[in-house]
Amino acid sequence: MTVGTHTPISQGIASSVPNGSAAAAILSAGIGSLAVALLTVFADQSAIVKNLLSIYKPTGALSGVSTFAILVWLLVWVLLDWRWRGRNLPLKRINLIAFTLLALSVLATFPPLGDLL
Amino acid sequence: MEITTRSLWTLIHGMGFGALYLLVCSGAIALLYLRSPTNAEVHSTPGGDRILGIYMTVMAALAWLTVLSGTYIVYPWYRAAAPAGTANLGAFPRSLLLSSPATKQWHLLGMEWKEHVAWLVPIAITMAAFVAIKYARDLKHSRPLRSALIGFVATSLFAAGVAGFFGAMLDKNAPVDGGQIIHLAGGE
User: Fold this and answer.
1) Least CB-CB distance to B127: which of A8, A25, A37?
2) What are the extents of the domains in chain B?
3) What pLDDT was estimated at residue B49?
4) Chain segment B85-139, per-residue pLDDT in tens
5) Which residue from B138, B155, B134, B158 is spatially nearest to B146, judged by alpha carbons?
6) Alpha-carbon Rg for chain B in angstroms
7) Can you say whether residue B69 is alpha, beta or left, with left for phi > 0 and alpha for psi between -120 and 50 degrees?
8) Of A81, B14, B19, B184, which has fewest CB within 10 angstroms of its CB?
9) Sequence-separated (6 or more) residues with CB below 8 Å from residue A90
10) Interface test with chain A among B116, B130, B155, by most A beta carbons within 10 Å
11) Across the interface, do A58 and B143 touch by the CB < 8 Å criterion?
């Protein structure tokens, strides 16, 4: 059965559009989030890194943390999208990785936990 | 009735962009949940797809406006260093909080978490908006896609909630104030 140009499917087995771009967006969001967390931890633990990341003095290291994390996120997104655009990938596995990275990011930005790393 | 420019920007950042983001977040989760095939009465229509796309795009814009206004407009006023020997720290919120054992954790835990966790929000919601637009017709049939979007939007709600809560408490304990005074009403 078809509806328009769309093929009904169950539980994401197939898609009218290859899911590679979605996979790239989801995984890169997890990696970008982790970049925020890792840069935060590095800046907190090293005065040299903190100074390097202070690219806009009034905002301090947060300017570099956010700027470089966004650059990492966008770069990874573009690269993954370029590689995966026309492919169908196991989204469940990619979701699991992305959610793990996202959860680690939330935890690592929490100062008492970030200080333990 | 008057307000200072710094207070106004804090208000725009927190009560404007930030609070609005928190309000629309639950709507996005509901819209995505309703794309589930078990909600048979709700069908994916071109109009509904467009609304979801616009809704998520507005959310992404709000998230970016919130973190950018917070990081580059309000935060520099918050963290400005007080000159040595300054007796009244009212114009230096960070220094004011750190000056007392009773309030320093609002900065050390509250601001330190808020300023970083908030940056996860635009990343999560921009991804969600992109996928919601590009895969609007597939959301109903792909549980992994819906799960990814709902998971990231829910996490962004949590992160924005943390940022909003600490933002409100920080402003209560050490408000960002100062700058030009804007007269809103009354007074001769």
Assistant:
1) A25
2) 2-80+94-183
3) 84
4) 888 888 899 999 999 999 999 999 999 999 999 999 999 999 999 999 999 988 8
5) B138
6) 20
7) alpha
8) B184
9) none
10) B116
11) no
Q: Say which DSSP state B14 is in.
A: I
Indicate whether B40 pLDDT > 60: no
Alpha carbon B128 to its chain centroid, in Å, reads 16
Tokens of A74: 């966008």
- Mark yes or no for CB contact B151/A102 under 8 Å: yes
pLDDT (tens digit, 9 = 90+) per residue, B142-178? Answer: 999 999 999 999 999 999 999 999 999 999 999 998 8
* B117 CB within 8 Å of a chain A CB: yes
Q: How many contacts, defined by CB atoms under 8 Å, are there between A and B?
A: 121
Q: Where are the domains of chain A?
A: 26-114
Given pLDDT bands bounded at 50, 70 and 90, which one contains residue A15?
low
Copy the structure tokens of residue B24. 């629309």
Q: Do B155 and A98 touch (CB under 8 A)?
A: no
Is the pLDDT reported for residue A7 higher than 90? no
Instruction: State phi, psi for B2 to the nearest 5 degrees.
Output: -145, 165
If pLDDT is split at 50, 70 and 90, which confidence band does A5 have? very low
Residues from chain B contacting residue A111 (CB–CB below 8 Å)? 108-109, 112-113
